[in-house]
Design a protein that fits this description.
This protein has helices at residues 18-25, 34-46, 65-73, 83-91, 108-116, 127-139, 175-186, 208-226, 252-263, 276-279, 312-316, 404-407, and strands at residues 4-7, 10-13, 16-17, 29-33, 53-58, 77-80, 99-101, 121-124, 144-151, 173-174, 191-197, 233-235, 269-272, 283-295, 298-303, 322-324, 332-338, 347-355, 362-365, 386-391, 394-399. With 417 residues, it is α/β, with parallel strands linked by helices. Helix 5 crosses helix 6 and helix 7 (175-186) runs parallel beside helix 8. The chain binds pyridoxal-5'-phosphate.
């Protein structure tokens, strides 16, 4: 699956002992495996080898430039949700004609920036946004390529916080409304209709919700065709899940087979926006045990990483496997692994049997490549951690650990104090 494996009792990232990375870079640290990133990207790409397609990696899952560059080198595009992500992607060398721009709250300056950058298309999420893009593009003497993000009202059977394609979600436009909006868009001077888009949620472990939404969107495509509106791109979004614990998501190749068979009669160019599926299991967060304590039959393991570094357990109650960097503990203990933050929600592991970590032991939180560093913050004035990318037997720091000076960058004490 990935390149984080034991050799003897030592955890390695590819050919590098994780312990050596910490010795050089310190703890906590995110560690990414380049080989795993490449492998996962290729597996997804290969799944659609027979059909015209573009993989627009979802930048928000992990927006670190080294990660973006890895996929750009393999021919990948990007799915962005802000002007900041566009800036990163272009800096990393993304081809603007492989950039799709999603998100319900695009601001005027972000729309202008995207138009000036000549991106492929906007995934339009509301009627007012369509008008706004048209106004801005017209004023700039440009045509904005668009797809409408249709909300197909399909249940992805995942966590409510990462469900996006149900009627009550803030995302996209309903099917009925979307057809009307396409007809309106057809008459707009600043708009070029290019495609149709959906993204129904994240961490999906079954293919049928994807196929169900494709079937619904195909009806829309048929109706539009009769109205003289033909579409080139079919953007199926992201959302394919990974194994964190005992989930059994479909392999990209199986997902690919079903998507291809559901779309082949259309002859459209497929666009995908995978995030988690490609980066999730390509990264780990390494942290150090500071203290342990036992209280009322409950054990706590205090570590130097917290919810500000890896928010998913606190945010969604998510599971991350934890493995010792050197596997020499005396058996297992039922414990919570908690961070230094002054919040009871600050845990990475809750009520689980884990190795009996001692002061100073290093541990790796697995599957932390997606929505890990990207969601991290400086809450409790904790500088954000370093990131490292490993390739074979070498590694490089791809983001320096922040300093306390970085924490107050841009702050000013007003003159009246
Ligand atoms: C978050 C997001 C994705 C990526 O989702 P994953 O579950 O990480 O694959 C793709 N498209 C859009 C519009 C998103 O918001």
């Amino acid at each position: 699956m990935h390149h984080f494996q034991y050799k003897g009792n030592e955890l390695f990232a590819e050919e590098v002992p994780v312990r050596e990375i910490v010795a050089k870079v310190g703890s906590p640290v995110y560690v990414y495996s380049h080989a795993t990133l490449e492998r996962h990207y290729r597996a997804f790409d290969d799944a659609f080898a027979g059909v015209p397609h573009t993989i627009c990696y979802s930048v928000k899952a992990n927006s670190t430039m080294a990660v973006l560059k890895t996929f750009i080198n393999l021919g990948g595009g990007v799915d962005i949700v802000s002007g900041g992500e566009l800036y990163r992607a272009l800096k990393a060398g993304a081809d603007p004609q492989k950039v799709v721009y999603s998100g319900v709250g695009k601001k005027d300056d972000e729309i202008e920036y995207a138009l000036n950058s000549n991106i492929l298309m906007f995934n339009v999420e509301s009627e007012q946004e369509l008008d706004r893009i048209n106004q801005i593009a017209t004023r700039m003497g440009k045509k904005a390529g668009i797809a409408i993000r249709v909300n197909p009202d399909v249940d992805p059977q995942t966590h409510p916080y990462i469900t996006t394609g149900l009627k009550n979600a803030k995302f996209g436009i309903t099917i009925e409304r979307a057809i009307e909006e396409y007809k309106r868009a057809k008459g707009m001077a600043g708009i070029e209709i290019l495609g149709i888009d959906c993204h129904i949620g994240s961490q999906l472990t079954k293919v049928n919700p994807f196929v169900d939404s494709i079937i619904k969107l195909k009806k829309v495509i048929g109706i539009l065709k009769e109205a003289g509106i033909s579409l080139k791109y079919f953007d199926i979004g992201g959302g394919l899940g990974i194994t964190y614990n005992n989930e059994e998501p479909p392999l990209p190749s199986d997902y690919g087979k079903e998507i291809i068979s559901a779309t082949k009669d259309l002859g459209m160019h497929l666009v995908f926006e995978p995030g988690r599926n490609i980066v999730g299991n390509a990264g780990v967060l390494v942290a150090k045990c500071l203290y342990t304590k036992q209280r009322d039959e409950k054990n706590f393991i205090m570590i130097d990483a917290g919810m500000n570094d890896l928010a998913r357990p606190a945010l969604y109650g998510s599971f991350h496997g934890v493995q010792p960097v050197v596997n020499d503990q005396d058996g297992l203990v039922m414990a919570d692994i908690v961070g230094p933050i002054c919040e009871s929600g600050d845990f990475l592991v809750k009520d689980r049997e884990v190795p009996m970590f001692r002061q100073g032991d290093l541990m790796a939180f697995m599957s932390a490549g997606a929505y890990g560093f990207a969601m991290s913050s400086t809450y409790n004035s904790r500088p954000r951690v370093a990131e490292v990318m490993v390739k074979g037997n070498s590694f490089e720091v791809v983001r320096e650990r922040e300093t306390v000076e970085d924490l107050i960058k841009g702050e000013r004490v007003p003159s009246f104090l």
